[in-house]
## 1
Amino acid sequence: MIASSPPTADAIYADLERIFQEHDDSFTRARPAVLKRLKAARAESLRACSDSLETTKSGVKAARVLAAGQDAIIQAFYRFIHEYVYPTANPSVAEKLSVIATGGYGRGLLAPGSDIDLLFLYPYRPTPWTESMVEVILYMMWDLGLKVGHAARSIDECVKLARGDVTIRTALLECRLVEGNAELAEQLYTRYDQAVVRGTGKKFIAAKLEERDERHKRQGQTRYLVEPNVKEGKGGLRDLQTLFWIAKYFYRVRSEAELVGKGVFSAKDYRLFRKCDDFLWSVRCHLHLLTGRAEERLTFDLQREIAQRLGYSPRPGLSDVERFMKHYFLVAKDVGDLTRILCAGLEAQHAVQPVGLTRMVRSLTGHATRTINDDFGAEHDRLVLANPTAFADDPVNMLRVFDIADQHNLRLHPDLLFHMRRSLKLINAEVRNDAEANAIFLRLLSDSHDPETLLRLMNETGVLGAFVPDFGKVVAMMQFNMYHSYTVDEHLIRSVGLLSRIERGGLEQQHRLASHLIGTIHNRRALYVAVFLHDVAKGRPKDHSVEGARIARRLCPRFGLSAAETDLVAWLIEEHLTMSITAQSRDLSDPKTIDDFAQKVQSFERLKLLEILTEADITAVGPNVWNGWKSTLLATLFDETEAVIAARHTRRPREARIAAAKVAFLEKAAQSLPEVTREAWANMHSAPYWIRVSAEDAVYHASLWARGAPGDISIGCRVIDTTTTEVTLIAPDQHHLLTTVASACAAVQASVRSAEIFTTQDEMAVDVFHIRPTSDDPADEEQRIARISSMVRDALSGRAPVPRTNDRQLRAVKQKAFTHPTDVIVANDWSQGYTAIEVSGLDRPGLFRDLADALLALDLNVRSAQLATFGERVVDVFYVTGPDGEQITDPELRAAIVEGVRQAYDNTPPHSALSAA
C-alpha cells in the first residue's frame, strides 16, 4: 500500500485563490466554498495520517504527517486572507502577526483528535487589522470542527505571563512558527530564553515534578491499571514529555537529540526514549481514529481492536490483546525507568546540599557521603555507590542494596538505580542459587519494614524478574477481564503489601478476621511466599493454580524453606481460589458444603492460612472489590469449617451452634421485642436460618415481621456498606416470589449479588437480597429501593405486573469486548437434599430475573441463590428441588434444566414466565 500525502499549502492556496475569483472577489460569497475546500484538506490530512500509521507502523511519523497537513491549512488560509481579505500594502510597525503553534502541536506532532494550540503574536498591542486577522482565522478553524486552544498576546505579555504561570511557560517552551512574521517569532524565542528560562531551571524542575506527581494521583498512582490513560497516565506520553521539558528547559536545547551531547541521555537511553514515544503515539493515534474523538483511555472495548490493528497474534496462554497490553505495560515501565532515574537525577544534582556530615568519602556523584561499608554510602537520605565495581565484584550486592536500604531507611540514589539497571545480566544462575542471596530475598519479602515498596522497586529496576525468572514472566502481564484492575505483577506485590499491613495491625477495621488470625499462625514465612507466588503461573496454557504449585515446589527449597513449608506453600497456591469460590457460590448452610471444604482443608493451620491469603488476594484485585458482604461470607465459612474440624466431622457441634445462635437471638431481642414475638420467631425457623443469619440480623427480621399483621407483606431496606444494600422481604410463600423480586430489581437496574431464601414452619418466606448500589447518594438508593418495594407489593397483591425493561439496550459497552461461553452444570453431589444448578458466563442486565423465570417455568423450588460476579463474568448457583420436593434425578428433567437455563441466559425471552403465570 502506498501512503497518501497531506495536501501542500501551495495547492490549497491555489484552490482558495481560484474560488475567490469565481465568486467575484467577494469573501462573503466565497466563504462556503472556502470552508468546503479546507474541510477536504483536513480530511486528506486525516487520511494521510491513517495511511502512514498503517504502512510505517510509526505513531510519530503519522502524527507528523497530520501536523504537516494542519500547518498547510493554516498557512494557505493565512496567506489567502492576508492577500485578498485584509491586505496591507504599507503595514505599520504594529501591523505584524505571527501564528505560532504551542504545546504538542508546537513539537510538530498532532493526534487526530488533539486540540490545535495557537498563539497569535503581535509586537506591542493589537491593531484593528490584527484583530480582524485573528478573528477570521479562529472562526474558520472552529467551522472546520477543530478544537482550538488559543491566545492573542504581545511579546511582553507572553514573558510576563510565563514568569508567573508554569503551564504557559511550558507551552511556550516548544513554540514553533507556522505562518506570519518570522522576525517577530525569533524575538519571542530570544526574550523567552533570556527573561524567563535563564536562572530558573531548579524552580521549573520542582514545579514540573510536583505537577507530575499530582497528575499521577488523579490517574491512580500506578502505571499498571488495566485500562490506562495513554496520555495522562503514569508511564504515558505526558511523562515522556515532562522528562523532555525538564531536560530541555535546564540545558536550553531545541531538540531531544541535543540532550545526548549534553550528557543527559546516553545513546541507548535516547533510543529507548524514541522507541517508547513512537509506540505510545501509535496507540494514541489508533485510539483517536478508531473512536473518532480525542479518546485517551485504552478501555477494554478498544484494546482488542487496536491489538489487531497493530498486528498482535495469540500465543499459548496469552491472547492477542493480552500480548499487546503486556507490551504496553513494558513500555510504560521503560518510561517510568527513564523519568524516575533522569528526572530524579536532575533533582538531586541541583538540590542544595546540607553540611556537617562526618566520616566522609567521595561517591560516584561527587557529593560527600557517610560510609556504610566498602561498597555503599549514604548521601543525605539516599543510598549511593562508594565502589564503582561493587556489582561486578559481588553480584549478590544487587540484593544487598535493598536490604541495606531497608535497615537504614534510605532511598536509592538515581545513579545507583542507573548502575543496577545496567548490571542486571550479572544476576545469573549462580546468583539465583546463592544461599545468602536467597536468605536476603526471603527477609525482604517476609521481615522487612515495607515489603510492598521494596518489591515494587525491585520490580521497577528489573532485579525481581531477574532473580525470580518465573515472576519475570508475569511482569506487565494483564488479564483481559473487568475483575482485575492491575497487571499480574502489580497484583502480587499489592497482595504482599496487604498481608504486611494486616500483620502490623493497620487494617483491623477492614480485615477483622485476618487481623485476628495472623497472630496465631505458625507458618508465616510460608504464607508470605504463597501470597507472593499465588498467581505467578498466569498466562500459561495449563491451570495457573496447578502450575503455580509446581513452580513453588521448585522455588521454595531455593528460598530456604523446609520440605514441610514447601508442601504447605504448594497446597496454598493450588487451593488459593477454593475458599473464595466456596464462600461466594455455595450454600454455606448446607452441611455437605462445609464437610467437603473441611475435608480439603483438613487442619486449623491450613484453614487460617488460606483465609488470610484469600482476603489479601481479593482485596488486591482492585478498588472496592473487598467489602463487608464478602467478609461475612468468608467468616461464616471459616466458623463452620472450624467447628467441623474441631469435632472431627461429627454433628454435635453443629447442633450446639444452632442452639447457641437461638440463645444469642433471644438475648439480643429481649431489649427490643416482646417475649411472645421472640419465642414465635425462634420457633419458626429451621437450622439453615440460624446457621446463616447472625443474631443481630435475626432481631432485625423479627422486628420487621412484627410490624405487619399476619399475612402482610413486609419489606425492609438497609445499607450494609458502600458496596451493598440489603432488601429483606417477609411474605406468605408463593411459587413466583423469587421472580417477582428479581423482575423488580431488573426494572430499576439493580444488580443482585446474592439471594438467601428461607421458609418458616408456617409457610412464610423470609428472603434476603443483597444488591449493588448505583449511586453514592443514600437518598438515591432509598428512592430506588422504594420503587422495588412498590412494584413487589403491587405484583404480589395482583394490582399490577412488574414492568419489563429492554435489557439489551442497557448492556454496558465494556462487556461487548468480552466473550465467555455459557456453561450450565446440574449436580446432586454438592448438597444433601438439594440439586445445585450452576450457570456461568458473561454478566448482563436482567440475568438474575431471566434465570429465576426459567426455574419457575420448570416448576422448580429454589432454596437459595448465590450470585458471584467477577468483573464481566458471573457464576450463579441455585439450590433447588424438583416438583416433588426432592433432588432431581430424572435425566429428562435434568436435560430440560440445562436447555432451559442456557436459553434463558443466551436468548432473553420476550415474555417472562411470571407474566405468563
## 2
Amino acid sequence: MAQVLTRFKSRSWRDRFAAWFEPSLVVVTVVPLVIGALLWMLGLRGAADALWIAATVAAFVPALYWMIATLVKGRAGVDLIAVLSLAGTLLVGEYLAGALVAVMLASGRALDAAAERRASRDLRALLEHAPRSARRRVGDDVQVIPLDRVAVDDVLVVATGEVVPVDGRILDPVAVLDESVLTGEPLQVERASGEPVRSGVVNAGDAFEMRAGATAADSTYAGIVRLAQQAGAENAPVVRLADRYAAWFLPLALLVAAVAYAWSGSAVRAVAVLVVATPCPLLLAAPVAIVSGLSRASRSGVVVRGGGALETLGHATTLLMDKTGTLTRGRPRVVDVVTAPGRDPAEMIRLAASVDQVSPHVLAEAIVSEALARGLELSAPADVAEQAGRGVSGTVGGHRVDVGKLPEALTAVDWGRTVVNRATLDSAAIAWIVLDGALAAAILLRDPLRRNAPRTIRRLRQAGLDRLVMLTGDRSEPAREVATVLGLDEVYAGQSPSDKVEAVRRERERAVTVMVGDGVNDAPALAAAAVGVAMGARGSTASSEAADIVLTGDRLDRLADAMDTARWSRRIAVQSAAVGMSLSLVAMIVAALGWLPPAAGALLQEGIDVAVIVNALRALRGNPALRVELTADTEALLHRFAGEHDTLRDTLALLRTAADGLAVRGGDPVALSAVEEAHRFLVDELLPHEQAEETELYPALAKPLGSPEATATMSRTHAEIQRLTIRIGNHLGVARAAGRIGPDQTDDLLACLYGLYALLQLHFRQEEENYFTLSDDGSEYAGAPGKSDSGTSVQP
C-alpha cells in the first residue's frame, strides 16, 4: 500500500509541465481575443489584428506538435484540421476566426488534460481511507507499528472506530463491524470468533483482537486500489464527435481543393476552398452544444467532468447500478411498530427513541428519526448502557427500557413469532423493546426503495438504455425483490468489488456501459465503465473522484435528467456539425468553380459559423418535448398531498392489526373494537383525503400530464377503496347488533381488511412514484424546490 501511495505522489517532469501548460495556453489565447475585441470596437483595427495573430500563433505551435503525435499513433482528427484551419486563417487574413479557433482548441485540450490526470486523484482518494499503522500485541505490550511491518499470524488490536488494517480472523467472542465501505450495506454486522474479517471495514463496537491472515499488500483494500488503477488504465477514451466527422471531412476538403487547383490551375481557387472549408462547425459548434449541455446539467445538480463523458453518456445503452444508496435510500427506516396486546405503538416508539438518543447505531438513528417525525416528545434517559451487538438500555420515566436484540432469557410469544416471520419475508431488521423485563413491542426497519426509483427507471429506458443491471453486495432475496419491483433485466447479488469490476468488463464488451454507485466498494467499477456516475451527496470521496459524472444531490432521478441532457446536447451537436459542414461543402463547390473569391468566402464562412453556433446554443434549453410544466398551485397541491400520505401511511397499520386480531381471536368484542377503530380511520381520514385528490389534484395534473386519462386508473382505485370501506361498514352494522363478529362474516371481513391494506399500500406507492415526484424536491429530499413566478419545469 505504501509503495502504491509513493508511486502516485511522484510525478514526472512531463506531468508537472502539463499541469501548468494547458491552463496557461487558455490564458494566452483568451486574453488577446478579449483585448483585441475591445480594441476593434474602439477602431484600432491594426492593434486588434496583431493580438489575434498572436493568439493564433500561440495555439498553432502546440497544435502542430499534437498533430504530429496523433499522426505517429496512426490517427488523424481535429488536431490536423485545427492546424490547417489556424494556418489558413493567417494566410487569408481572417485573424478573428483564427483567435476563436485558438481559444476553442486550448480550452478543449485543458479539459482533456484534466480528465487524464483524474486516475491519480482517484487512487489518492481511495488511499485516504486506508490505515497507515496497526496495533500489534506482543505479550501484554501493544505497539503501534507501520502498516507494512504487519506479518501473517501477528495478533492485532483494533480499537473502536478504527479501520481494520489487514485481512485476518476474529479472536474475541464477537466483533461488531461496519462493512459499508466494502459492501455498501448500511447495517452493521457481527463476526464471531474464528470468522474472517477484511481490511477496510470499520470497528463499530468495542475493541477486539484479530490474527493477521495476510500482509497489507495482499489484503482486500489494497486489492481495491489496484483494481481502480487497472480499470482506469484500461478504459480507453471513446472517439470524440468532432474526430469522427473530421475523419472524412478533412480528406474531402483537401480533395476538393486539389481538384480545383488541378482543373483551373489557380491557387486562389484552392485557397478559397480551404477558407470556406475551415472546420469551425466542428471546432466551435459541436463543443458549444456539449458545453451548453454541461451547463444545463450542472444547474440540475449533475457535475460532468468533461464533454467527452457527456458525449459518451449520450449513446450509452447499458446501465449497471448499485442497490444501497442508489436505488434504495441507503439508510434504514421504520416500516412498522408491532406491540404486545394492550400496548400503545406511539408510546413504545417514544420510549425506544428516548433511550436510543445516546446511541450512534444506524438503527437507533432511524428509530429516533421516526419518533421525531411523528411529533413525539422524547425524555432524557438515565443509567444508559450500550452493549456492542446487543443494543441499548436505560431508564425512562421510572421504567427500564431495553432496545435491540431479543434477550436470551426471553422467547418470542405468539405475536413475536409473527413479527419474526414477517421480518424474514420482508428482509427487515427487528429492534425488540423490553419494558421492565417484559417483551413489549418490536420495531421493523428496512432500507426502503427510493420513492422516485420506478419512475426514474422508466425514464432511463425511454432515454435509450435497453439493459439495466443491478450489482450489489447485499443478499440475493432483498436484491431480487428490488429488481422485480423495478423491472430490471439482471441482478447480481453478493458482489465483491472485484466481482463488480468483472461484471462491468463483461457488459462493456457488448455495449457502451454506464455504472452508478456511491461507496468505496464501487470506485473500481466506476473507473472500469465507459461512464462512471457517483451519488455524491452521501457517496464516498473515492466514488466521487473515480466517477466521470457526480450527482451532487441525493437524487437518482438526476441521472435520468443527465441522460436526457446528454442525448439532446449530442443531437444538437450532430445537427450543428452536419448542417455547418453541409453548408461548407456547398460553399467549397462554389469556390472550386471560381464563383466565390477568398475574401467573400471568409465572410460566408463567418456567417455559417454564427448560424451553427446559435443553433448549438439551443442545448441550453433542453429538449422541450420532455418537459412537464407545473404551475405554482399544482406544485403546492403535490406537496400538500405528499405530506398527507406520510401521515396516513403511519395509520394504515390499523387495517392489518385489526385483521391479524380477527384472525387470531375470532369475532370477540376486542376484535370488533379493533375493526371499528380501523373503520373510523377509513371514514374520517382516508376517504376525505382520496376525495380531495379526486376533485383537486387529479384535475390539476390533467394538463401537465397531457390528458385526464393519465389519472383514470387512480380514479378507479379510489372507487374500489370506497367500495371496500362501505362493505366493512356493512359488516360492522350486523356485528354491532349481535355484540360480536359472526363466524359467517369473518372470512369476507378478513378479505376486505387485508385486501384494502394491500390496495392502499400499492395505491400510495403509485401516486408517489407517478405524481408526487413531478415536484422538484419531493418529500423524501432536503432542499427547497426551484420555483419561478410561473411555476416549475421538470422532466417527466
## 3
Amino acid sequence: MAHPDPGSLNDEAVALWDRYDVLGHPELLDAAIDRLRSGLGAPGAEAGARNSLRANLAGALAARSLRSGSLDDLREAAKLARDVAGVTAPGDPHYVGRQTAVGVTLLQYYVRSRDTSVLDEAADFLEVALRQEPSPVTRGNLAECLREQYQVRRDPEVLERALDLARSAAAEVTHPLYARSQSNLALTLMSLPTAARDPAVLAQARQAMWASLAATPAGHPNEVERKNSYARLLYLVHQQDPNPSTLTDFVRASRQAENVTPQGHPLRATAIRMRAAGDYLRARSASNQAAEALSRRWLRHVVDNAGLPVAERIQAAMTWAGVTLLSGADLSEARWAFERTVDLFPLLPGRHLGRSDQQVQIAQFPGLALDAAAYALAAGDPALALLLLEQGRGILLARAVETAVDPAALERAHPELAADLHRLLIRVDDQSPSAPRDSFARAELRRDRARQWDALLDTIRAQPGFEGFLRPPTVAELLTAGREGPVVILVVSPLRCDAVILEPTRMRVTPLPHLTAAEAHQQAQAFAEAVAAGRDPARGRAEHAAAEDDARAVLRWLWHAVAEPVLTALGLDRRRPNASEPLPRIWWVPTGPLTFLPLHAAGEYPEPFAPVPPGRCVLDLVVSSYTPTLRTLLHHRGSENPSARAPGSSLVVAMPTTPGAPPLPGAHAEADLMHREIWPEADVLEGQSATRRSVLAALPGCRRVHFACHARSSADAAGVPYLLLHDHQDAPLTVSDIAALRLGGAEFAYLSACDTTRAAPALADEGVHLASAFHVAGFRHVVGTLWRTADDVAQRLAGNSHRAMGGDGPGHVAHALHRAVQEERRAAPSVPTLWSAHIHIGA
C-alpha cells in the first residue's frame, strides 16, 4: 500500500487550516493537524518538506491552543517552531516567517505562563523578523509583544514604540491582517496611562475596535478575543462616563462576548466576569435584586472553577465581594467571597516562575489581604482576620520559610521522602552550566519541578502524622506569637483601620479611628520626601530644616494615629516609675504604607533646642522590634535555642569604594572597628575581595555578619534588591541569593547599608527586601535600615550597638540598638531622620 505524499498532505492541511480560519470549526483544524502528523510520519520526505510540515504543524498547534487552552499543544508548537527556525538560514525565503513563528508562539506561551524570560526572548525573535522585513505583520507582532512588556515593567518608551508600530500596522487597510492590526491598536491605546481619564484616547480605541469587529466574520477563531476586548473597552468607557447609554453599550457587548466564548477557552473567565459586571450594573440601575443575585452567581462560577486562571478567579472573587457589600446582600456571602479571595492568593505566583515574576503577579492585587481582614474585623471575627492576614501577606517569605524546614522527623519516618524533598530543595534555583540555555526550556524545567514539588507534598501529607507538613500555621499556632510580649498587627484598609494585638494570654482589637488608608499613604509619601530633602547635600540649610519640620510632623501624626492608642491599650503609655528597669518589648507588624514609616520613632519631638516632652514617644516607653509576618517570627522562635548553638565564625564585609557608586569612607572605619574591637577573630572581606562568590562562600557556617556597603532596594531600582559588592555590575548579590541560603548556625546580621528594609510600594506586604532575606536565610536577628542615613551617624550607631551587645550578645540586639539610637537622639532630638532609620527584625 502506497504511503501518502508528504507534500500533498501538507497542501491538504493548509487548505483545511484556511477553511478553519474562515469558518472557525474546530474539527477542520484537528484534521489539518492529523494531515501534518501523517506527513511527518511518511517515509522519504526531504529535509525541506519536513521543515515545512513541522513549521505548519507548529502554527496549527498554536492556533488550536489559542482556542482550547491546551498547554500541551503550545509546548509542542514552541519546540517545533524553534527547531525549524534553528535550521533556517537568514537568506532562506522562509526565514522571516519562521522567526516570526517562534516569537508569536513564545508570546502566546508567556500569556499563559507569565514567564518574562520567555516574553523577552519572544521580543528578540520578533525584532529580528522586523529588521529583515518591516511589514504590517512584523510590526503588529512586535507591537503586541512590546505592549505585554510594558504591562510588566511600565517603561513609557516601550509603550510609545508599541503604539507607533501598532499605528503603522493598522494603517495598511488592504492587508489581510487588517482586523488584527486594528484590534492590537485598540488594546495598545487602552494600555496608555491616560486612557482611563481621557475620552479622546478611548474614542480612538473604540473606533479601532469597531473596525476590527466589522472585518471579523461571525465564527472566526479571533472573534472571541476581539469581542472580549471590546467588552473591556466599553467597561472603561462606562467608568469614565457613567450614563444609561454607555451602560447599555457595555451590557450588550459583555453578553455578546460571553455568548461567543466557549467552555474551556482561555478567555472564558474574562467573559463571565464582564458579563457579571454588566448584569450587576444593569440590575443596580433598575433596583432588581434578583438580577443582582444572578450576577453574583456568575462571579462565583468563575471563583469555584479550578480550571480557570488563578488571576481571573481572584479578580472575580474581589468583584464578588465588592458587589455583595454594595448590594446589601447576606453578609455571610461577602465573608465567603473574601475568604475565597485570600485562599486563592497564595496560588497566584506560580512556583514555576522566577522570583521577580512571582513579585509581578502579587503586585497586581496590593492590599488584598488587608481588605479581607478589615471585613472580618467588621464582622466581629478577629481570629479570621488574623488567618487572612497571614495567608494573604508575605507569600514569597512563606515559601522561603518552607524551604528552611527541618526534615529530621520526616527522615526518621520516611527517609526516601526526605531524600526526595532534599533533592527538590537544592534544585529550586538551579543555575548550573548544565541548565537549558533557551528561556522556553528553562521555563518548562521550572514548571516540571513545580509539579514534582506539589506531588511530593501531597504524598508526604498523606502519611499519618504529617497531614500538616509545610502547611500555613493555624489560628491556634498564630496566637502563640504573643507569648513573649505583645505583637501588634496594624491593619490599614480603606474599609477600616485597626490594631490586632496578640498578648501572652489573649488577642484583642483596638480600633484606630484617627488612621485612614488615604492619609497613611499621604504621610508615608511626605516622610519619604522629607528624608530625601534632609539627606540631599545639594539643599541649603533652610531646606534641610524645613525637611526635618516635615519629618517631625509625620512622626507626631504617627504617634497620635497609631502608636499612642496601641500603647494606651497595652498600658504602656507612661514611663515606669523605676527608670532602671528594662523597658518592655513590643513587636510591630506594619502593613501597607506603614511599612515605610519608623513606628519605633513615633512621637512628639521638639523644635530645635526645646526639651523632649516626657513619655510622648515610643522610644521612651518600649523597645521595638519588627517582623514582616507572624510565620517568620514563629519560625525563628521554634528553631534551636541560640545558647545551644555551636560556635560559628564572624564575617565583616566592607566596601569603602564601589565601582559605579559613590565612595563610603566610613565603611573602612566600621570594618576596622569591628575587627579591632568587637570581633577580633572575624574574617574581613573588603574592597576587591568582597565579591558575590566570596561572600556566598563565607556565609555558610557564619554565626555573625556585618555589612558596610551600598545597597539597592526594589523601591529605588527596577528588579530584585541587591548588595553592591565589588562585582555587583556583573554579579550582584541579590535578595534571592541570600534567601536561598540555609544557615543553621546564623544568629545576627547587621546591614549598615541604605534602604535594606524597603520594598516596592506594590509589594509592601510581601516584605521582599534584603533584611528579610537574611532573616529567612537563618539569621534570628537582623538590623537593617529604612533609608540612607549620614555616614558618621551610621558608624556611631554600628559601634555603639555592637558594644552594647557585648561579644556574645545577639539575644540583646533589640535592646542594644535601642540604646544606641537613644544616644544619637540625645545629640540631635529635633533631627529624627538622622537617627531613626535603623530597625531590628527578629525573635
## 4
Amino acid sequence: MIPNVNAVIYSALLLFSGLFSVPVFSQQPIHASALQCEYMADPIGIDAVQPRLSWKLKDNRKAAVQTAYRITVGTDSLALIKDDGTAVWDSGKISSSAQLTRYSGKVLEPFTKYYWQVQIWDKDGKPATFIPVSSFESGMQAMGNWKGTWISDNKDINKLPAPYFRKGFKTVKKIRSARAYIAAAGLYELYLNGGKVGNHRLDPMYTRFDRRNLYVSYDVTAQLKNGENAIGVLLGNGWYNHQSLAVWDFDKAPWRGRPTFCLDLRITYTDGSTELVVTDDTWKTDDSPIVFNSIYTAEHYDARKEQKGWNEVGFDDRKWRGVTLRAAPSNLIVSQVMHPIRNVEVIPVKSFKKFNDTTYVFDLGRNIAGVTEIKLKGDPGTRLSIKHGERLLPNGRLDLSNIDVYYRPKDQNDPFQTDIFILKGEGTEGFMAKFNYKGFQYIEVTSSKPVALNKESIVGHFMHSDVPVTGKIHSSNTLLNKLWSATNNSYLSNLFGYPTDCPQREKNGWTGDGHFAVETGLYNFDGITVYEKWLADHQDEQQPNGVLPDIIPTGGWGYGKSNGTDWTSTIAIIPWNIYLFYGDSHLLRSCYPNIKSYVDYVTQISPNGLTTWGRGDWVPVKSESPLEYTSSVYYYADAVILAKAAQLFGKKKDFEVYTALADKIKKAVNDKYLNRSEGIYGTGLQTELSVALLWGIVPEELRLTVAQRLADRVKADNMHLDVGVLGAKAILNALSENGQADIAYKLAVQDTYPSWGWWIVNGATTLYENWNIQAERDISLNHMMFGEIGGWFFKGLGGIMTDEKSPGFKNIRLMPNFVAGLDEFEATHEGPFGTIQSSWKRKGKKILYEVQIPANSSATIHFPVQPGQAAWMEGKKLTEIYQASAGKYTFEIQ
C-alpha cells in the first residue's frame, strides 16, 4: 500500500474547496469517495457487529473500473494513515469491483471511534495515491452496557401536561469528548445548559414499544462546560401514550404508559478517564407549559406556565418532585441509525386574509406536512386557536371535513389539527409544536382577544425524514414536471421514520401505500435507512402464523380479514427492491424467514393456488376487478420473490418448493382468468390487464397481445384511467415495458378527469386520495397510494432500470422511450456507484440521446428504434442493444 501521508492534507483541501466553491485541483485524482458506514456518513452509535462499509469510485475516465480494494480500520487516525500495522482490521488487497462490504475485523468495542479508509486500484491496476479517511463510532453494542435507569414522573396515563426532567452535575477535569445516549418510550427533546441537543424532530421513531425501542446518540462535547452543568429532558406522548381517540384504537395499544426515558451521558477526559451522568433517582421532575400533546391531533401550550432557565445551571428546583424508576418498556433497545426527521424547509405565507381583529386565515400556497411557527404580541391570557387544514369553505374560513372523519373526540378540549397557544403577555412571543405534526396548506388563527397579525406572523416548517435526494427529472412538459414535484411532496410528507398514507387524517403506516410507492421513493431519495427500520417493524408485528397487520406499526388494529397479499406483500416487495436498488442483500436475508412464514400462511388458506385474502383495487374510478384475481397475482409475486431469494442464498430445497408454488399459482390464475384466444384477463379491465403484465403472470407468447389489449382498452376509455391503487401501480409500467409507451405517456399527462393531471390543473401540489376531487369520502389531499407515477418517469421515459442479474445498478438497463408529444426529457439518479443520467431531445427528425454511466459500472442500452430508424454513435451504426462501460455517450437516432 502506498503510504497515505497526504490523506489528511487532501481531505482538508476538499473541505476548503467545498466551503468556498472553488476547485483545488483542475482534475481530482482517482480515489474512493462518499465513504459511508451503514449508509450514513461518519455515524455515531453503531451497534452492528459487522457494520456495512460502502464507497464510490471517483474516476472520470471512460471505462473506469475498480480492479481491487483494501480496507483498513483502526482507532488511531494517524496510525491508520501511516499504515503502521496496528489496524483492527486489514482486509488485504482484494481483487474485486465491489463497493460494499462488511467489517470483518476484531470485535468492535462499545463507545469507540473507528477510522477507516479504502485503498482502490484503478482499471490499469494502479493504486490511488489519495486515500481519504472516514469514521464511525460504536454505540452501546449490548443491553448490559446501559448504566442509567428508566425514569418517569409517576403520573397516570391520562395526566395531560408533558413533564420536565432535570439534573445538575459537575465536571472536574478537562473534557476531551462527550456523548449522550438517550432512549425513550414516547418522544423527547434533550437539552444541555439551556440549549437543545441536535436538530432532530420527533425522536425516537415509532416502533412496537413493547418489543423494540430505539436510542439516539449525540456528540455533545461542544455543549458541555468545565465545572457546573445542567441537563434537561422534555417528554412527549408520541404514539406511546396516545390520549386522543380515533377509529384506529391508538389509545388501546398494549404498551401504553406514561412516557419514560433512559439516558447515559458519557464524558471522556483528556487524561483518558471517563465519567457517567445517568438517569437515576436523583433527577427531579415537574410539569411543563405543554399542557397537552397528541401526535395525532395537536399541541396546547400555556406560556404563563413557563419556568425560565429550567434546563440551565443555577435553576431553583427545590419545589420539583422526585422521579419514579421504571422497568425498560422492552428487552431490546437498539440504536436509531437512520436519517432523522427534521424541519427541512421553511415555507413562507403566500397570502392571508383578515376577517376581523380575532380571525385570520393564511395560505402557504402548497400542501405540506409539518408544523407552523407563530410570533406575535398580545395581552396576558390571550388564547389562540391555530387550526390547520387542506381546504377552505366558500366563505374563506377553514374546512376540516375531509380530514377529521376518523377522529372520535371525547369532548371539545382537543380540536383536530388545532394548536392552542396561551400568551403570557411579555413582548413578542413564539410557539411551534414540539411533539406533533400535521398535514395542511391553510392556517386559521382565532383569538380570544384582538391581536395584530400580518403575512410574516406565521411560517410553515416542512417536516419529514431528511433523506438525501437521489433523483431528478426535467422535461419539456410543464404538467409532467409539476406532477413529479407533487409526487415527491407527497412522498416526503408521508415519511416520518416509516412511510405513511397521509399526514393528517390517519398518519398510519399502511403497508399497501408503502409498497405501491417504494420505487418512487428509491429513484428519488436515499431511503434505505427508513425502509430497513420499517421492515424491522414488520418483523416485530408478524404473528407466529405469518400474518401481518395492514398498518405497521400498530397498537392492535389491522389484523382483520382484509390484511392480505395486495397490502402486506411489503414483507417481500420492499426487501427485494432494496436489493435491486442497492445491491445489498442484508434486508432480504433478514426478512427471508418472515417472507417464508407469510407465503406459507397464504398457501395454507389457499390450497388451490388462488386466494381471496386482500383489499382489492382500492378507490377505483368505476370498474372493480375481482378480489380473488388481484390477491392471487400478489400471492404469485411473493412466491416468485421468495424463490429468487432462496436461490440467491443457496437454499436449494426452498428454491424448488417455491418455484413450484409460483408455477402452481400462475397456472391457477391463467386457467381461471385468462382468455387465451382473446388475450384478455377477466373482462379486460385496465387493472386486470395491467397487473398481469407487471407481475409476470402473462405467458410470454401472449405478452404483447395482452399489452395491445390494454392499450385498446385505454383508448376505449377515452385515454383516461379506470383503475384503483393496484391498477395505478401497474398500468404505466405494463404499457411502457411492453411496446405501448406512447399510450402510457398520454395517460400519464392526461389533464381531465379522471387522471393525475386533473389534480394538477386544479391546483394540487401533492397527490390526492381519490381521483374525484369532490368525493364525499377518501379525499385526503396529501396521499401516496397513487404515487407509482413518480418512479415511472425514471423507468418509462428515462429508461433507468435495475438489473437483477447485476443489482445496485452495477449494470444499468437503459430502456428509454422517445414518446410522441414530448420534445425532451432528462432523468438522473444517484445510485450506489454514482450518477446515472439518461436524457433525450428531438432535433428535427432526429433524436439525440445522452447517457452517463458511473465509474465501475456498465449499462445495457436498448434503443427503441422504429421501422426505418437506426441508432448511431460517432458515425457508427449500432444494433438495437448496445453494451456500454462507464463514461458519457451521445447517440443519434435517425
